[in-house]
Design goal:
The longest helix has about 40 residues, at about 210-245. The chain has helices at about 5-20, 25-35, 50-65, 65-85, 85-100, 210-245, 250-255, 260-285, 295-325, 335-340, 350-365; strands at about 105, 125, 130-140, 150-155, 160-165, 170-175, 190-200, 205. About 55% of the residues lie in helices and about 15% in strands. The protein has 3 domains: about 5-100, Butyryl-Coa Dehydrogenase, subunit A, domain 1; about 105-205, Beta Barrel (Butyryl-CoA Dehydrogenase, subunit A, domain 2), CATH 2.40.110; about 210-365, Up-down Bundle (Butyryl-CoA Dehydrogenase, subunit A, domain 3), CATH 1.20.140.10. The protein is of the alpha+beta class. Helix 6 (about 210-245) packs parallel to helix 9 (about 295-325). The protein contains 11 helices and 8 strands. Strand 2 (about 125) and strand 3 form a beta hairpin. It has a 4-stranded mixed β-sheet with strand order 1-4-5-8, covered by helices on one side. Strands 2-3-7-6 form a 4-stranded antiparallel β-sheet, with no helix packed on it. The chain starts with a helix and ends in an 11-residue tail after the last helix.
Length: about 375
């Protein structure tokens, strides 16, 4: 879903208002809904083709990295329901999600086990075809405003499940937020407690099936979504910087006559192109149904690559733009804003943690196949 320049400018104004106060960008999300950025087709003949969703996340990322991740998290939840939801749940939610009329929040983080997707401290109970849950979550992005939730819980036998909970069927108790970060300020994650009783048909992926959902789609989409959001934010800054160089004679001479600065521009392009190519390759592999250890390694590689290269590109833009166009809070290039936002990318499901996971996988699988031979 491509945005026109006027709508992008309006969205930027809305997210900047929210960023100053570290509050959720409700006005921007309303505009994003109306623009179709939250929409997902449930009747898509090729439901694993993520290209339309990646485009929406990328466009939201061009507005801000935080808005890109918010849109990405919603589309991740919707995509998982489209692939793994029961027929009854899909029939109920399909029309609203196709129109972008409902915003789904993700409740996966635990107070004790953090972001470990394989564990949950909240054990559900079952009676009469219904599930009762009581979930205490330390961080829920958009928890104040989302229309519904996908909630990670534990079966009595300890296996994790994923349950869809409409907000109007739940008792939601918001905690006091201490959210005052360096960047990603408008993602406005809040603590909340969620109590609800919902039908068994709201279990996504079947009882105890969240591990399978994570391996099949949830985890892959998370890394694809982050990469698309960060790439959108960094690319937008790069294009704004190039426009600033073209329009400022002094800066144009400084860059055009310096091999060092021209080389830095080339390095920025190389960093972002590497992320773009890796993202396209993983999206294509997911659509083709690839799985297994090598695909898992490449999925983790994408997140680490996007986190490091997108931030490195913006860091280099600071050097190119200098104090007036790179370091200052300049609404023209927005580099300072993206620098603060993307500094968190390596911390968001830590790069070090993913590297350790990949190290273990590489001990099992080795270093992958030879490059594909060219057709003769």
């Amino acid at each position: 879903m491509l945005l026109d320049d006027d709508l992008r400018a309006t969205l930027i104004e809305a997210v900047d208002d929210a960023e100053r106060d570290a509050r959720f960008p409700a006005d921007a999300m309303k505009l994003a809904r109306e623009a179709g950025l939250l929409s997902i087709a449930f009747d898509d003949p090729d439901p694993r083709d993520l290209r339309p969703l990646v485009e929406s996340i990328y466009e939201a990322g061009r507005v801000s990295a935080a808005l890109g991740t918010i849109v990405g998290m919603h589309l991740q939840q919707a995509h998982v329901i489209a692939l793994h939801g029961t027929d009854e749940l899909r029939a109920e939610l399909g029309p609203a999600l196709a129109e972008g009329a409902t915003y789904i929040g993700s409740v996966t983080t635990e107070r004790n086990s953090g972001g470990d997707l394989r564990a949950s401290d909240s054990v559900i109970t079952r009676a009469g075809g219904r599930i009762t849950l009581d979930r205490d979550a330390p961080i829920v992005t958009g928890g104040e405003v989302c229309d519904s939730f996908l909630v990670k819980v534990s079966e009595p036998d300890g296996r994790p499940s994923l349950v869809y909970v409409p907000r109007d069927a739940a008792e939601v108790e918001l905690g006091r937020s201490a959210w005052d970060p360096m960047g990603m300020r408008e993602s406005a994650s809040v603590p909340l407690r969620l109590r609800a009783t919902v039908p068994e048909r709201n279990v996504v992926g079947g009882p105890g099936g969240f591990d399978r959902v994570v391996s099949d789609s949830f985890g892959v989409f998370a890394h694809i979504g982050w990469a698309a959001a960060w790439l959108g934010a960094a690319t937008e800054c790069g294009n704004r910087l190039v426009r600033a160089i073209r329009e400022a004679p002094t800066l144009r001479r400084k860059i055009g006559e310096s091999e060092l600065m021209l080389g830095r521009l080339a390095a920025v392009h190389s960093d972002l192109d590497a992320v773009r190519l890796a993202l396209d390759a993983l999206v294509a592999g997911y659509a083709a149904g690839r799985s297994g250890t090598e695909f898992a390694i490449r999925t983790n590689d994408l997140k680490v690559l996007a986190a490091t290269r997108c931030f490195a590109a913006v860091d280099t833009m600071v050097e190119i733009g200098g104090l007036p166009h790179g370091y200052m809070r300049d609404p023209g290039t927005r580099i300072e804003r993206a620098f603060r936002d993307l500094r968190s990318a390596s911390l968001n499901f830590s790069n070090d943690r993913l590297a350790a996971i990949n190290g273990k996988l590489i001990l099992r699988a080795g270093f992958g196949p030879a490059p594909t031979a060219r057709a003769r």
